[in-house]
Amino acid sequence: MTDDQARPGRVGTWRELFSAEHRAPVVVLAGGVGLFATNTYVTTSLMPSAVADIRGEELYAWTMTVFVVTAVISSMLVARTLDRFGGRSAYLGGFLVFAAGTAVAAAAPTMGVMLIGRAVQGLAAGLLAGLGFAVVRLILPAFLWQRAVALMSAMWGVGNLLGPVIGGVFAQLGVWRGAFVLLAVIALALGGLAARVLPRAAGTSRTDDDPVPWLALVLLAVSALLISVASLETDATAVAALMLAAVVCAAGFVLRERRASVRVLPAMIYRGSSPLRWIYLSILLLTLAVTIETFVPLFGQRLGAMSPLAAGFFGAAISWGWTVGSISSSTLESERAKRVVRVLGPTLISLGFLAYGLLQTDAPSGWVIAGWVGSLFVAGTGIGMAMAHWLTSGLKAASTPGTGEAAQISAGMNTTQLIATAFGSALAGLLVALGGPSLLGSARVLSFGYVLIGVLAVVVAFREFGSARRYREPVADQP
User: Fold this and answer.
1) 3-state secondary structure at position 1
2) The pTM is what?
3) Which among 41-45, 114-118, 173-177, 310-314 has the top mean pLDDT?
4) Domain regions of the chain by residue span
5) Of 3.40.50.300, 3.30.559.10, 3.40.50.720, 1.20.1250.20, which CATH number belongs to 266-479?
6) Do you find a cis peptide bond into 109, omega within 30 degrees of 0?
7) Fold of 13-203
8) Highest mean pLDDT among 138-142, 205-209, 445-449
9) Higher pLDDT, 444 or 237
10) Fewer C-beta within 10 Å: the chain N or C terminus?
11) Which region holds residue 212: left if phi is over 0, alpha if psi is between -120 and 50, else beta?
12) Smallest Cα–Cα separation from 35: which of 171, 152, 168?
């Protein structure tokens, strides 16, 4: 390593990230996240055609529910998988299982079989997305982490762009199964690349064989399942009961985690002096903000009179902003600039959603629709610029000497994102229901409600700044 590369706070360049030494492993890491994201949006685009072919309309919404729940479960087992099998085998297994689940979905003769395929896909997807943040520390030097995290974060925007195109084209051609076949082929290709370029050993320090915390896993999985079911309900009483039950299960999970010796999430979260809890909470809030995308295409079609394809691209405005924000902010080196971005990002989220809500109308002009796109893009940019630096902060916390939970801390960030996705889908559905019966009212309530997410994220950012200073002070006094 050169003296310049060893300079504290230095951020590597894109050329260095994609150099011959690092290019192939980076493609595997980004490909795992990109496959997860693309699959999500491909499925959303082609499921209407699949239902028309194999029937099972009553199970339509469960295609996403089983995927999210199984992804949450597998994401909590990333650290253990990495410890037991190493980076190469973990990635290879993840890609092979994903390809198998996708093949089942492609060949599904009934909706029941489709759900089995989606569940297997979710198990692999949660693992692949989590492995990216855990393995990046092990195969790349520290000065390239920020670029790599920005790239993996931006893959959600790429997936939101490619997913509707792939799903829409195959559905339009009347061969929706072909989209799943294409995803399976891509998974197999990435698996082959992982087998060639990733190191066999994970390089983690765990040597014992701790038991799996099944009770904690079940409590969190049930909580996510209840929230997903709540998002499908239209009766307010049923929604409230399901959400209450989900909160009880989540509270049980936290209580169990605080007292247990073997945990799903790192013990540092529960230590009063560690800033990690605020890092995780920031990641959770930023991910919650993205879930407004669930209803944006619907508003585009019903209020903006857009075609389904146009509405799909309209819904991708947040993800495009996320990509731009992640990439553009990845050059920052000074800690002060990074702190500014972690506050500016949530501020842009609130301003973007506020503008989007104020622009809602029944008969929007072309300029108003352009304002919709611009405001959502601004919000997405805020998500991307802040998310990239919070994820990098989590990686640095994982590498702090003496933590002993490096892989668990890294993988836990992905678990947090998946949990937020499940909670956010239910939150969005609840706000839409509260704003009804008119769709215009729903759009406004949803938009203004999500303004508060940005406000909360700003508050959490300042709490992390104070916590980080207190956490570092004792260390600075040590010889």
Assistant:
1) coil
2) 0.75
3) 114-118
4) 13-203, 212-261, 266-479
5) 1.20.1250.20
6) no
7) Growth Hormone; Chain: A; (1.20.1250)
8) 445-449
9) 444
10) C
11) beta
12) 152
